[in-house]
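Structural prep section.
Before we set up the soaks we want a predicted structure of the protein with S-adenosylmethionine in place, mainly to decide which crystallisation condition to try first. Input record follows.
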Amino acid sequence: MPKLSHICNFSVSMSISSPSLCRYLNPIHSIRPLLLSHHFSSLSTPRTKLRSLLSISLQSSFRSSHFEIRASHSDAIQTSHTKVAFVVAEDERYGNKQVISITPQLYNYILSNTREPEILRELREETAAMRGSQMQVSPDQAQLLAMLVQILGAKRCIEVGVYTGYSSLAVALVLPESGQLLAIERDAKCLEIAKRYYQRAGVSHKVDVKHALAVDALKSLILNGEACSYDFAFVDAEKRMYSEYFELLLQSVRVGGVIVIDNVLWHGKVADPLQVNDPKTVSIRNFNKDLFEDKRVSISMVPIGDGIMICRKN
Ligand SMILES: C[S@@+](CC[C@H](N)C(=O)[O-])C[C@H]1O[C@@H](n2cnc3c(N)ncnc32)[C@H](O)[C@@H]1O
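Run finished without errors. Recording the C-alpha coordinates verbatim:
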Protein backbone atom coordinates (compact mmCIF):
# COMPACT_ATOMS: atom_id res chain seq x y z
CA MET A 1 0.00 0.00 0.00
CA PRO A 2 1.54 3.38 -0.90
CA LYS A 3 2.19 5.94 1.78
CA LEU A 4 -0.10 8.92 2.07
CA SER A 5 2.57 11.16 0.51
CA HIS A 6 2.55 8.96 -2.57
CA ILE A 7 -1.18 9.24 -2.78
CA CYS A 8 -0.87 13.01 -2.45
CA ASN A 9 1.65 13.11 -5.28
CA PHE A 10 -0.66 11.07 -7.39
CA SER A 11 -3.64 13.20 -6.56
CA VAL A 12 -1.82 16.46 -7.28
CA SER A 13 -0.28 15.28 -10.50
CA MET A 14 -3.63 14.02 -11.74
CA SER A 15 -5.00 17.52 -11.35
CA ILE A 16 -2.05 19.05 -13.15
CA SER A 17 -2.20 16.62 -16.00
CA SER A 18 -5.93 16.60 -16.41
CA PRO A 19 -5.96 18.75 -19.61
CA SER A 20 -3.81 16.24 -21.45
CA LEU A 21 -5.81 13.43 -19.94
CA CYS A 22 -8.94 15.12 -21.16
CA ARG A 23 -7.45 15.55 -24.59
CA TYR A 24 -6.92 11.83 -24.62
CA LEU A 25 -10.49 11.09 -23.59
CA ASN A 26 -12.16 14.01 -25.34
CA PRO A 27 -12.57 12.64 -28.83
CA ILE A 28 -14.63 9.79 -27.48
CA HIS A 29 -16.49 11.30 -24.57
CA SER A 30 -16.12 15.08 -24.59
CA ILE A 31 -15.03 15.13 -20.96
CA ARG A 32 -13.90 18.50 -19.59
CA PRO A 33 -10.94 19.24 -17.26
CA LEU A 34 -13.13 20.39 -14.38
CA LEU A 35 -14.81 17.05 -14.15
CA LEU A 36 -11.51 15.32 -13.54
CA SER A 37 -9.89 17.77 -11.18
CA HIS A 38 -13.02 17.93 -9.05
CA HIS A 39 -12.56 14.56 -7.43
CA PHE A 40 -8.88 15.03 -6.63
CA SER A 41 -9.14 18.02 -4.38
CA SER A 42 -8.77 16.07 -1.13
CA LEU A 43 -5.15 15.13 -0.41
CA SER A 44 -6.20 12.59 2.16
CA THR A 45 -8.36 10.54 -0.19
CA PRO A 46 -7.13 6.94 -0.14
CA ARG A 47 -5.98 5.49 -3.39
CA THR A 48 -8.77 2.93 -3.66
CA LYS A 49 -11.33 5.64 -3.02
CA LEU A 50 -9.69 7.90 -5.60
CA ARG A 51 -9.92 5.14 -8.13
CA SER A 52 -13.52 4.36 -7.41
CA LEU A 53 -14.48 8.04 -7.26
CA LEU A 54 -12.96 8.60 -10.63
CA SER A 55 -14.43 5.45 -12.03
CA ILE A 56 -17.91 6.40 -10.79
CA SER A 57 -17.48 9.94 -12.04
CA LEU A 58 -16.41 8.82 -15.47
CA GLN A 59 -19.00 6.07 -15.70
CA SER A 60 -21.81 8.44 -14.86
CA SER A 61 -20.54 10.93 -17.41
CA PHE A 62 -19.96 8.39 -20.10
CA ARG A 63 -23.16 6.47 -19.57
CA SER A 64 -22.32 2.93 -20.62
CA SER A 65 -18.58 3.33 -20.88
CA HIS A 66 -16.00 2.46 -18.33
CA PHE A 67 -12.75 4.35 -18.11
CA GLU A 68 -10.37 4.01 -15.23
CA ILE A 69 -7.30 5.99 -14.26
CA ARG A 70 -4.96 3.64 -12.51
CA ALA A 71 -2.67 4.54 -9.67
CA SER A 72 -1.74 0.96 -9.15
CA HIS A 73 1.39 0.62 -11.23
CA SER A 74 4.04 0.17 -8.58
CA ASP A 75 6.84 1.94 -10.49
CA ALA A 76 4.60 4.88 -11.21
CA ILE A 77 3.92 5.61 -7.54
CA GLN A 78 7.24 4.67 -5.94
CA THR A 79 9.11 7.91 -6.47
CA SER A 80 7.86 11.32 -5.51
CA HIS A 81 9.01 12.95 -8.78
CA THR A 82 7.09 10.50 -10.98
CA LYS A 83 4.52 12.51 -12.88
CA VAL A 84 1.49 10.29 -13.09
CA ALA A 85 0.32 6.72 -13.30
CA PHE A 86 -0.81 5.23 -16.57
CA VAL A 87 -4.06 6.12 -18.22
CA VAL A 88 -5.86 2.95 -19.08
CA ALA A 89 -8.86 2.76 -21.37
CA GLU A 90 -10.86 -0.33 -20.70
CA ASP A 91 -13.96 -0.48 -22.79
CA GLU A 92 -15.67 -3.40 -24.40
CA ARG A 93 -15.96 -1.45 -27.65
CA TYR A 94 -12.17 -1.74 -27.81
CA GLY A 95 -12.11 -5.37 -26.78
CA ASN A 96 -11.37 -4.33 -23.17
CA LYS A 97 -7.90 -3.51 -24.41
CA GLN A 98 -5.75 -1.62 -21.96
CA VAL A 99 -4.08 1.31 -23.64
CA ILE A 100 -1.22 3.00 -21.89
CA SER A 101 -0.36 6.65 -22.00
CA ILE A 102 3.35 7.39 -22.31
CA THR A 103 4.69 9.03 -19.17
CA PRO A 104 8.13 10.69 -19.00
CA GLN A 105 9.32 7.68 -17.03
CA LEU A 106 8.09 5.26 -19.67
CA TYR A 107 9.49 7.36 -22.50
CA ASN A 108 12.89 7.35 -20.78
CA TYR A 109 12.63 3.59 -20.70
CA ILE A 110 11.82 3.48 -24.43
CA LEU A 111 14.77 5.74 -25.20
CA SER A 112 17.06 3.61 -23.06
CA ASN A 113 16.05 0.72 -25.32
CA THR A 114 16.58 2.68 -28.53
CA ARG A 115 19.81 2.25 -30.48
CA GLU A 116 21.01 5.61 -31.70
CA PRO A 117 24.24 5.56 -33.75
CA GLU A 118 26.92 7.88 -32.35
CA ILE A 119 26.86 10.12 -35.44
CA LEU A 120 23.11 10.66 -35.06
CA ARG A 121 23.54 11.49 -31.38
CA GLU A 122 26.17 14.10 -32.30
CA LEU A 123 23.90 15.61 -34.95
CA ARG A 124 21.01 15.73 -32.51
CA GLU A 125 23.18 17.43 -29.90
CA GLU A 126 24.52 19.99 -32.37
CA THR A 127 20.99 20.73 -33.57
CA ALA A 128 19.58 21.01 -30.05
CA ALA A 129 20.82 24.60 -29.74
CA MET A 130 19.30 25.62 -33.07
CA ARG A 131 15.97 27.23 -33.78
CA GLY A 132 13.43 24.57 -34.73
CA SER A 133 15.29 21.66 -33.14
CA GLN A 134 11.98 20.29 -31.88
CA MET A 135 11.16 19.57 -35.53
CA GLN A 136 13.67 16.75 -35.63
CA VAL A 137 12.26 13.24 -35.39
CA SER A 138 12.96 11.47 -32.11
CA PRO A 139 15.58 8.69 -31.85
CA ASP A 140 12.89 6.02 -31.54
CA GLN A 141 11.14 7.38 -34.66
CA ALA A 142 14.43 7.41 -36.58
CA GLN A 143 15.05 3.82 -35.52
CA LEU A 144 11.61 2.80 -36.83
CA LEU A 145 12.17 4.59 -40.16
CA ALA A 146 15.50 2.84 -40.57
CA MET A 147 13.91 -0.49 -39.75
CA LEU A 148 11.11 0.02 -42.31
CA VAL A 149 13.75 0.76 -44.96
CA GLN A 150 15.59 -2.41 -43.99
CA ILE A 151 12.46 -4.59 -43.92
CA LEU A 152 11.47 -3.28 -47.36
CA GLY A 153 14.97 -3.84 -48.69
CA ALA A 154 14.59 -0.30 -50.03
CA LYS A 155 17.16 1.05 -52.46
CA ARG A 156 15.48 4.22 -53.68
CA CYS A 157 14.12 6.58 -51.03
CA ILE A 158 12.80 10.14 -50.82
CA GLU A 159 12.66 12.49 -47.88
CA VAL A 160 10.52 15.62 -48.00
CA GLY A 161 11.75 18.04 -45.31
CA VAL A 162 15.35 17.35 -44.27
CA TYR A 163 16.07 20.15 -41.74
CA THR A 164 19.60 19.35 -40.46
CA GLY A 165 19.46 15.77 -41.64
CA TYR A 166 18.65 13.60 -38.63
CA SER A 167 15.97 11.35 -40.19
CA SER A 168 17.65 11.32 -43.62
CA LEU A 169 20.96 10.27 -42.07
CA ALA A 170 19.19 7.48 -40.17
CA VAL A 171 17.83 6.22 -43.50
CA ALA A 172 21.09 6.71 -45.43
CA LEU A 173 23.04 4.75 -42.80
CA VAL A 174 21.00 1.60 -43.44
CA LEU A 175 20.75 1.92 -47.23
CA PRO A 176 22.94 -0.49 -49.20
CA GLU A 177 25.99 0.99 -50.94
CA SER A 178 24.02 1.13 -54.20
CA GLY A 179 21.06 2.83 -52.47
CA GLN A 180 19.96 6.43 -53.13
CA LEU A 181 18.06 8.89 -50.98
CA LEU A 182 16.64 12.00 -52.63
CA ALA A 183 16.69 14.53 -49.78
CA ILE A 184 14.51 17.59 -50.50
CA GLU A 185 14.79 20.75 -48.41
CA ARG A 186 14.15 24.45 -49.09
CA ASP A 187 16.51 25.80 -46.42
CA ALA A 188 20.11 26.00 -47.67
CA LYS A 189 21.62 26.64 -44.23
CA CYS A 190 20.07 23.51 -42.78
CA LEU A 191 21.30 21.53 -45.73
CA GLU A 192 24.89 22.62 -45.06
CA ILE A 193 24.72 20.92 -41.66
CA ALA A 194 23.05 17.85 -43.15
CA LYS A 195 25.71 17.54 -45.84
CA ARG A 196 28.50 17.85 -43.26
CA TYR A 197 27.03 14.92 -41.35
CA TYR A 198 26.46 12.79 -44.46
CA GLN A 199 30.16 13.37 -45.17
CA ARG A 200 31.27 12.50 -41.66
CA ALA A 201 29.12 9.36 -41.67
CA GLY A 202 30.56 8.30 -45.04
CA VAL A 203 27.15 8.21 -46.74
CA SER A 204 27.37 11.28 -49.03
CA HIS A 205 27.46 9.06 -52.10
CA LYS A 206 24.03 7.69 -51.12
CA VAL A 207 22.32 11.06 -50.68
CA ASP A 208 21.17 13.23 -53.57
CA VAL A 209 20.56 16.58 -51.87
CA LYS A 210 17.91 18.69 -53.58
CA HIS A 211 17.71 22.31 -52.48
CA ALA A 212 14.19 23.04 -53.74
CA LEU A 213 10.56 23.41 -52.90
CA ALA A 214 9.17 19.95 -52.32
CA VAL A 215 6.30 20.07 -54.81
CA ASP A 216 8.60 21.31 -57.58
CA ALA A 217 11.18 18.60 -56.90
CA LEU A 218 8.54 15.85 -56.75
CA LYS A 219 6.87 17.02 -59.96
CA SER A 220 10.17 17.11 -61.79
CA LEU A 221 11.13 13.60 -60.82
CA ILE A 222 7.84 12.33 -62.28
CA LEU A 223 8.45 14.36 -65.45
CA ASN A 224 11.91 12.77 -65.60
CA GLY A 225 10.30 9.35 -65.94
CA GLU A 226 10.94 8.23 -62.35
CA ALA A 227 7.30 7.40 -61.50
CA CYS A 228 6.81 4.09 -59.67
CA SER A 229 10.55 3.72 -59.12
CA TYR A 230 10.91 4.54 -55.42
CA ASP A 231 10.60 2.08 -52.53
CA PHE A 232 10.21 4.39 -49.56
CA ALA A 233 9.31 8.01 -48.82
CA PHE A 234 9.23 10.02 -45.62
CA VAL A 235 7.17 13.23 -45.45
CA ASP A 236 8.05 15.82 -42.82
CA ALA A 237 7.67 19.29 -44.38
CA GLU A 238 4.84 21.84 -44.64
CA LYS A 239 1.77 20.33 -42.95
CA ARG A 240 -0.81 22.07 -45.13
CA MET A 241 0.82 20.59 -48.22
CA TYR A 242 0.53 16.99 -47.07
CA SER A 243 -2.21 16.08 -49.58
CA GLU A 244 -0.16 17.41 -52.48
CA TYR A 245 3.01 15.65 -51.32
CA PHE A 246 1.07 12.44 -50.86
CA GLU A 247 -0.46 12.48 -54.36
CA LEU A 248 2.94 13.09 -55.94
CA LEU A 249 4.65 10.46 -53.80
CA LEU A 250 1.96 7.92 -54.57
CA GLN A 251 2.92 8.33 -58.22
CA SER A 252 6.61 8.05 -57.35
CA VAL A 253 6.63 4.86 -55.27
CA ARG A 254 6.17 1.37 -56.67
CA VAL A 255 3.33 -0.95 -55.69
CA GLY A 256 4.32 -2.33 -52.29
CA GLY A 257 6.34 0.81 -51.60
CA VAL A 258 5.86 2.69 -48.35
CA ILE A 259 5.13 6.35 -47.61
CA VAL A 260 5.52 7.46 -43.99
CA ILE A 261 3.98 10.76 -42.92
CA ASP A 262 5.08 12.51 -39.73
CA ASN A 263 3.06 14.60 -37.24
CA VAL A 264 -0.29 13.01 -38.00
CA LEU A 265 -1.35 13.32 -34.33
CA TRP A 266 -0.18 16.95 -34.19
CA HIS A 267 0.33 17.08 -30.42
CA GLY A 268 -3.08 15.45 -29.98
CA LYS A 269 -4.90 18.44 -31.47
CA VAL A 270 -6.34 16.40 -34.35
CA ALA A 271 -8.49 14.51 -31.85
CA ASP A 272 -10.13 17.60 -30.42
CA PRO A 273 -12.37 19.09 -33.13
CA LEU A 274 -14.61 20.78 -30.56
CA GLN A 275 -11.81 23.01 -29.29
CA VAL A 276 -8.95 23.04 -31.80
CA ASN A 277 -9.57 24.21 -35.35
CA ASP A 278 -6.54 26.20 -36.44
CA PRO A 279 -5.63 25.78 -40.15
CA LYS A 280 -2.73 23.33 -39.62
CA THR A 281 -4.71 21.10 -37.29
CA VAL A 282 -7.74 21.07 -39.59
CA SER A 283 -5.53 20.33 -42.55
CA ILE A 284 -3.87 17.33 -40.86
CA ARG A 285 -7.24 16.12 -39.54
CA ASN A 286 -8.73 16.23 -43.04
CA PHE A 287 -5.65 14.58 -44.48
CA ASN A 288 -5.93 11.71 -41.97
CA LYS A 289 -9.61 11.30 -42.84
CA ASP A 290 -8.80 11.20 -46.56
CA LEU A 291 -6.12 8.59 -45.96
CA PHE A 292 -8.52 6.50 -43.91
CA GLU A 293 -10.88 6.39 -46.89
CA ASP A 294 -8.17 5.97 -49.52
CA LYS A 295 -8.24 2.41 -50.83
CA ARG A 296 -5.09 2.95 -52.88
CA VAL A 297 -3.07 2.43 -49.72
CA SER A 298 -3.04 0.21 -46.65
CA ILE A 299 -2.54 2.33 -43.57
CA SER A 300 -1.34 2.16 -40.00
CA MET A 301 -1.39 5.13 -37.62
CA VAL A 302 1.36 4.70 -35.05
CA PRO A 303 1.57 6.85 -31.88
CA ILE A 304 5.33 7.32 -31.90
CA GLY A 305 6.82 10.79 -31.59
CA ASP A 306 4.11 13.15 -32.81
CA GLY A 307 2.37 10.27 -34.58
CA ILE A 308 3.21 8.74 -37.93
CA MET A 309 1.03 7.22 -40.64
CA ILE A 310 2.58 4.30 -42.48
CA CYS A 311 1.02 3.86 -45.93
CA ARG A 312 1.71 0.95 -48.24
CA LYS A 313 0.83 1.45 -51.90
CA ASN A 314 -1.59 -1.27 -52.99
C1 LIG B 1 9.99 19.06 -39.45
S1 LIG B 1 11.37 19.63 -40.29
C2 LIG B 1 12.13 18.19 -40.88
C3 LIG B 1 12.85 17.44 -39.79
C4 LIG B 1 13.69 16.30 -40.30
N1 LIG B 1 12.88 15.30 -40.94
C5 LIG B 1 14.49 15.72 -39.17
O1 LIG B 1 14.13 14.68 -38.62
O2 LIG B 1 15.47 16.34 -38.78
C6 LIG B 1 10.62 20.32 -41.70
C7 LIG B 1 11.57 20.83 -42.76
O3 LIG B 1 10.83 20.96 -43.96
C8 LIG B 1 11.30 22.08 -44.65
N2 LIG B 1 10.24 22.54 -45.56
C9 LIG B 1 9.05 23.11 -45.21
N3 LIG B 1 8.33 23.37 -46.31
C10 LIG B 1 9.06 22.96 -47.36
C11 LIG B 1 8.85 22.95 -48.76
N4 LIG B 1 7.73 23.45 -49.27
N5 LIG B 1 9.80 22.45 -49.55
C12 LIG B 1 10.94 21.94 -49.03
N6 LIG B 1 11.20 21.91 -47.71
C13 LIG B 1 10.28 22.41 -46.88
C14 LIG B 1 11.63 23.09 -43.57
O4 LIG B 1 12.58 24.04 -44.04
C15 LIG B 1 12.16 22.19 -42.46
O5 LIG B 1 13.56 22.13 -42.48
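Observations: The longest strand covers residues 253-262.
Flagged for discussion at group meeting.
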